[in-house]
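User:
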Amino acid sequence: MDDKHKLGFFGATSYVIGNIIGSVMVTWMNFFSLNKFAGRFQIVATAAKLLSCFLIIATGLYFYYVKGWTSNLRDPMKGSNYTPGDMILGFYGGLWAFSGWDVLNYSTGEIARPRKNVPLALLVGILTVTAVYVSINVAYFVALDVETVKSSNAVAA
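Assistant: Predicted structure:
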């Protein structure tokens, strides 16, 4: 099997084993104490995601300010298509980053002072996600040239 078609160290087997382990962990959390353990797990998982995002942003800032890599930002959209269909697909792909804002109102009965806190949570959440994702994409354009960004499936929406 070609190396670029392998998933992990052991091919598809490691992917399946990872899914099984993840499913067992979620089942275990639900079995014992959903409120206590799952709440803590959610905080840890969110912190880990934000930490990895801030690491990417810090790397971009390092290359921009310390290394002086600014040439990729002079014309980052050179050769790009601006058709309405491509723009809509780009926005649609970006909506997955905002997943969760639409279900916030389902838990308003459990939120203290929901009239004040729900709009605040929506505003802070959407602004935070927007700032983080725009910063990550700018960091990608600082560290990677335009052709690499255009040809890669690994670059964020």
